[in-house]
Amino acid sequence: MKKNLLTALLGMVLCGSTAIAQLPDETSGRVPELDAFHKPIYELWHTAWPAKDIARLKSLLPDVEKAYTTLAAAKLPGILRDKQAKWDEKLQVLAQSMKAYKETVEKGDGEGILKATEAVHMNYEQMVRLVRPVVKELDVFHQSLYLLHHYYMPENKTELIKAAADSLARKMAALNGAALPKRLEARTEQFKKALKNLDESVQAFSAAVKAKKGKDEIAKLENTLHARYQVVEKVFE
């Protein structure tokens, strides 16, 4: 009896350890298959395409196709789950440009190959922009929010919720000082307005957690906080 109990307890500890160990991976926004796709794309775009080297662009097709096949089967990490629909949409667009690349190579259409490979590169960059943070401070903020929203709140982990509230308050201060890249400067006013609303939610949530308000009230404030974070993200769409 004791032996069975010890075995069961050991199993629970190991399972718990495994779950905890998996959380950091959930908060990483890297997609290894997308990074790997960059290798053949780099040579295609920075070497063969500028030189209008049709023979080289033809010879690169198998490598690009192989990397694309791997990319098409990639699974997004948990932190990117909200981007799955857009990822699928952009993957379909990339698939069409890959199809054009293959068809123009088979036809020996030099001008078509140049247009198709340009489209492959452009559509690859669109996928990179989808998963790579425009503002690093927002990505850091999201890492804490992700764990709070998808793990700590649903499981009512009081101490972790308290720690997350403190973490979000600190990260919000850094986010308030973030600047948009030049290509998005025209959206600065929209960005600042969205940040102001998010900041108010972070403060309200943190205050409620510190005051040990009821579970329902804290949950409502956290849902508002999460929704306002999504509004900030939409600034970049």
**Structural class by helix and strand composition:** mainly alpha
**What is the mean predicted local confidence, pLDDT?**
87
Number of domains: 2
Q: Count helical runs.
A: 9
Q: State the total count of DSSP E strands.
A: 0
Strand residue percentage: under 5%
Shape descriptor: elongated
- Fraction of residues in helix: over 70%
How far is it from the N-terminal to the C-terminal residue, by CA? 59 Å
Radius of gyration: 23 Å
CATH topology of the largest domain: Four Helix Bundle (Hemerythrin (Met), subunit A)
Largest sheet, in brief, is: none
The ordered H/E elements are HHHHHHHHH
CATH architecture designation of the largest domain: Up-down Bundle
Extract low-pLDDT stretches: 1-24
CATH C-level category of the largest domain: Mainly Alpha
Short recap of the structure:
This protein has helices spanning 2-26, 32-48, 54-72, 84-107, 110-131, 136-152, 158-176, 188-210, 215-234. The chain is an all-alpha fold.
3D structure, described in words:
This protein has 237 residues and is mostly helical. 78% of the residues lie in helices and 0% in strands. It contains 9 helices and no strands. The chain has helices spanning 2-26, 32-48, 54-72, 84-107, 110-131, 136-152, 158-176, 188-210, 215-234. Residues 1-24 have low confidence and may be disordered.
